[in-house]
């Protein structure tokens, strides 16, 4: 391997490489870089395919042609000492502790933070990869926005596959921004089924008000160029299809020999280290992180704390201390229903719905505050790292015998 192909790992400093600059990865990067920027024996590198930060919580807005702020990852990292490396991660070798970037560059690491997240599981649905749109990235969302803009001139039907939170937000946004289009939301369950009765009913009423046709109990088995096929043999005509039902992880971790679960997520110990490779930390959607009530599901509200905790664990290890167990409890489920309506379902730490919820304008303000909060939070952590180390620990829902 030539010198031009090899990057990092030759200075003698402990090299921490963070793969992925999403919500969790950026939290880990800013937190660790801020805490180690005065140490000459520690280097932090952040790898991502894009210089622009992707606000995944707003991609349904991008998909309807709304312009979002330009948030620069290198600009945010400026002054922290962290190095930004732009490129696609194409291979991971856990034995040699190397990461291949764009097939022609190699990063050597001493500690790895794996935060590559998930993408839509289109291979699970025949025809989805060829004929369905996704919200995997800003570019994917922009492709859908272009398709919707063209349909707006001619009319047509948009089928949203998946009645979970992403499907609900996307269907509502499309219906509000493109009232001339027919929007059909297809899913096995009722929209808002995991919420309390009042919040769930509000979601369904809002979708009805926006003109969204909800077909619960629909099992989509195939996507065709101009329709979706259901398990009962029926077809639903569609000029555009958005797939929001299910996610998958990149196969890199499994291919590298790390222990993963049945969904390809890295299995971690209580400190977020890989159970098979303790020099690797896994955070966000890419990790199977178990709490007392079960394995966390990927959301921004849990993803950012996992990133901060991984950084704190690495920082403690660098000082010769033992990392502490990670504890987290859910506290809300905010769902936008277009720009002028929303629902916020407050939850118990194990994610079960509480009786209290917000609706209407109060929920809109709450949801927007939550959606807009990550970037300012990174900025605060850059100056005051301790400001990012506050989140609900879950109380008795996450407390173990060892943690008492």
Percent strand equals 25-35%
* Major β-sheet strand ordering: 4-3-2-8-19
Indicate the percent of residues in helices.
25-40%
Separation of the first and last Cα atoms: 51 Å
Radius of gyration, whole Å: 22 Å
The secondary-structure class comes to: alpha/beta
List key phrases describing it.
alpha/beta; four-stranded mixed β-sheet; 404 residues; five-stranded parallel β-sheet; 25% strand; disordered N terminus; 29% helix
Q: Any overview of this molecule?
A:
With 404 residues, the chain is an alpha/beta fold. It has eleven helices and 25 strands. It has helices at residues 23-36, 59-62, 73-77, 128-131, 138-154, 165-177, 197-209, 252-255, 300-318, 360-372, 374-383, and strands spanning 6-7, 14-19, 42-48, 83-86, 89-93, 98-101, 105-108, 111-114, 118-120, 157-161, 182-187, 213-216, 220-224, 227-230, 235-237, 240-243, 247-249, 266-267, 280-282, 287-288, 290-291, 294-295, 332-336, 342-347, 353-359. The strands form eight sheets. It has a five-stranded parallel sheet. Helix 1 (23-36) runs parallel beside helix 9 (300-318) and helix 1 (23-36) runs parallel beside helix 11 (374-383). The chain is globular, with a radius of gyration of 22 Å. The relative contact order is 0.14. The model is unreliable at 1-10 (pLDDT under 50).
């Amino acid at each position: 391997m030539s010198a031009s192909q090899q990057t990092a790992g030759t200075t003698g400093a402990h090299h921490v490489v963070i793969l992925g600059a999403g919500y969790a990865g950026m939290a880990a990067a800013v937190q660790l870089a801020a805490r180690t920027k005065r140490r000459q024996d520690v280097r932090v590198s952040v790898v991502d395919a894009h210089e622009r930060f992707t606000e995944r919580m707003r991609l349904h807005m991008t998909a309807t042609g709304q312009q979002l702020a330009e948030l620069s990852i290198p600009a945010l990292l400026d002054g922290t000492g962290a190095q930004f490396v732009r490129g696609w991660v194409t291979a991971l070798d856990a034995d040699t502790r190397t990461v291949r970037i764009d097939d022609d560059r190699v990063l050597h690491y001493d500690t790895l933070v794996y935060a590559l997240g998930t993408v839509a599981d289109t291979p699970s649905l025949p025809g989805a990869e060829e004929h369905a749109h996704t919200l995997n990235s800003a570019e994917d969302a922009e492709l859908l926005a272009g398709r919707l803009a063209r349909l707006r001139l001619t009319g047509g039907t948009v089928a949203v596959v998946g009645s979970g939170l992403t499907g609900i937000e996307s269907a509502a946004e499309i219906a509000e921004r493109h009232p001339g289009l027919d929007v059909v939301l297809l899913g096995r369950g009722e929209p808002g089924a995991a919420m309390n009765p009042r919040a769930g009913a509000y979601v369904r009423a809002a979708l009805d008000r926006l003109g969204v046709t909800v077909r619960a109990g629909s099992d989509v088995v195939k996507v065709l160029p101009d329709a979706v096929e259901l398990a009962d043999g029926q077809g639903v005509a569609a000029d555009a299809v958005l797939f929001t039902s299910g996610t998958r992880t990149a196969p890199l971790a499994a291919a590298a020999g790390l222990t993963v679960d049945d969904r390809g997520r890295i299995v971690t110990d209580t400190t977020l280290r890989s159970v098979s490779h303790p020099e690797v930390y896994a955070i966000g959607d890419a990790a199977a992180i178990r709490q007392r009530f079960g394995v966390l599901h990927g959301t921004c509200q849990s993803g950012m704390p996992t990133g901060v905790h991984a950084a704190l664990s690495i920082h403690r290890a660098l000082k010769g201390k033992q990392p502490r167990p990670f504890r987290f409890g859910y506290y809300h489920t905010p769902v936008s229903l277009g720009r002028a309506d929303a629902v916020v379902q407050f939850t118990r730490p194990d994610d079960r719905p509480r009786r209290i919820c917000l609706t209407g304008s109060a929920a809109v303000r709450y949801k927007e505050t939550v959606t807009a909060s990550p970037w300012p939070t990174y900025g605060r952590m850059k100056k005051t790292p301790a400001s990012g180390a506050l989140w609900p620990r879950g109380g008795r829902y996450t407390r173990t015998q060892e943690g008492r």
